[in-house]
């Protein structure tokens, strides 16, 4: 079935990695088409280099190289088109908005969605995070708007006639009219919830359900965070636990950015917060367990308590979901025997040795309450299978 809603994402080099990936894959999982455009770049083949913004012990955040994020539509065509072709505009944060704020086409595009002047009757939801509020100010669309952002943007918001709202807690999304603003990626659970509401979505089945993510150092950056925020966005209570860390500590993530058939270098990603103590984890409290990939499963598969926990989830008829090298933990728990699964290159042999009945190369597969996916490009399908098995629906 063709998507009934379409969102435009305004991109550029050094946009924040999570702030592009989270809405892109989450919305796709919910059946929303997302066109990603960037000045000077054209599909197919062109991509934006993203940036990882994280605090690593210095006074200000560090900027690290992220993923190559593909452009999927033409910027000039989107800027020339009627904004009513789209149901919302998403502008990730990052330094790219500084250049876009003096690009007349980019500014006029934002103004068209914000509904200033003659276009006031055609307003569409506009999501701005971290530093992309600068574009809203450049478009003359900040006046009278209650808005939050990264702390350094307070003066910009006030100079542009907006009312500053402290980003407390960091997961806060401020919805004022058609403008949805947040400090950045920590708020994407709330951003997704508010954006779905603003687009007229009806979400059922998520409230009260709990999902547990198993993580450790060098968990895959996208594979941990994107489904974590997406599931929070449809009302799930989402927690993360690690057998070697306490609540409040963080696992460092890793970025693997290559074609599925090629080896990939490893780069440091964001920090991923542990939100539950391992000793407090009880499978009966959760409807689903998710095992992201990266190198973290190499540690988890050596920890008897982690193997036993995944086996317990399966034994109690809970949803068990694994992506990429998370399959190593499933294999250790004996959960792939006789099952169909989707696998990338890294775990294809492992899946066969673990007795998988069939191994799909790429994509995502649901076999009963077992969900498997090959790697992070398959996140939309992976998330869609999970929410379906949890009985969650998103309709427009």
UniProtKB/TrEMBL annotation:
SUPFAM superfamilies: Class I glutamine amidotransferase-like
InterPro entries for this protein: C56_PfpI-like, Class_I_gatase-like, DJ-1/PfpI
Pfam families linked to this entry: DJ-1_PfpI
Family statement: Belongs to the peptidase C56 family.
Residues in DJ-1/PfpI domain copies: 5-197, 211-387
Phylogenetic classification of the source organism: Eukaryota, Viridiplantae, Streptophyta, Embryophyta, Tracheophyta
Organism: Oryza sativa subsp. indica
Signal peptide residue numbers: none
Name of the protein: DJ-1/PfpI domain-containing protein
């Amino acid at each position: 079935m063709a998507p009934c809603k379409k969102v435009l994402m305004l991109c550029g080099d050094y946009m924040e990695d999570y702030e592009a990936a989270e809405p892109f894959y989450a919305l796709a999982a919910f059946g929303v088409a997302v066109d990603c455009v960037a000045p000077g770049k054209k599909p197919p083949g062109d991509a934006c280099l993203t940036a990882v913004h994280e605090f690593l012990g210095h006074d200000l955040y560090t900027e690290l190289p992220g993923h190559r994020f593909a452009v999927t539509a033409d910027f000039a065509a989107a800027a020339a088109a009627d904004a009513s072709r789209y149901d919302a505009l998403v502008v990730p944060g990052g330094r790219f908005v500084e250049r876009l704020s003096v690009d007349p086409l980019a500014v006029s595009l934002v103004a068209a969605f914000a509904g200033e002047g003659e276009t006031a009757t055609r307003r569409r939801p506009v999501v701005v995070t971290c530093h992309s509020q600068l574009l809203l100010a450049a478009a003359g669309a900040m006046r009278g708007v209650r808005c939050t952002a990264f702390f350094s943007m307070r003066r910009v918001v006030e100079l542009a006639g907006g009312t500053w709202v402290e980003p407390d807690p960091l997961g806060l999304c401020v919805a004022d009219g058609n403008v949805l603003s947040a400090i950045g990626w920590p708020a994407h659970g709330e951003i997704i919830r508010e954006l779905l509401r603003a687009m007229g979505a009806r979400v059922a089945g998520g409230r009260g359900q709990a999902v547990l993510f198993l993580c450790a150092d060098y968990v895959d950056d996208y594979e941990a965070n994107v489904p974590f925020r997406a599931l929070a966005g449809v009302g799930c209570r989402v927690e993360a636990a690690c057998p070697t860390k306490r609540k409040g500590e963080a696992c460092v993530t890793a970025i693997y950015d290559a074609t599925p058939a090629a080896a990939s270098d490893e780069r440091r990603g964001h920090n991923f917060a542990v939100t539950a103590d391992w000793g407090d984890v009880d499978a009966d409290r959760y409807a689903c367990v998710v095992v992201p990939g990266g190198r973290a499963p190499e540690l988890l598969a050596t920890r008897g308590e982690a193997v036993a926990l995944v086996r317990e989830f399966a034994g109690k008829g809970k949803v068990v979901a694994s992506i990429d090298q998370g399959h190593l933990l499933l294999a250790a728990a004996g959960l792939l025997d006789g099952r169909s699964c989707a696998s990338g290159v890294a775990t294809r042999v492992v899946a066969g040795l673990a007795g998988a009945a069939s191994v799909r190369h790429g994509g995502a597969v649901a076999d009963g309450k077992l969900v498997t996916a090959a790697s992070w490009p398959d996140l939309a399908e992976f998330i869609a299978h999970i929410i379906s098995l949890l009985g969650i629906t998103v309709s427009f």
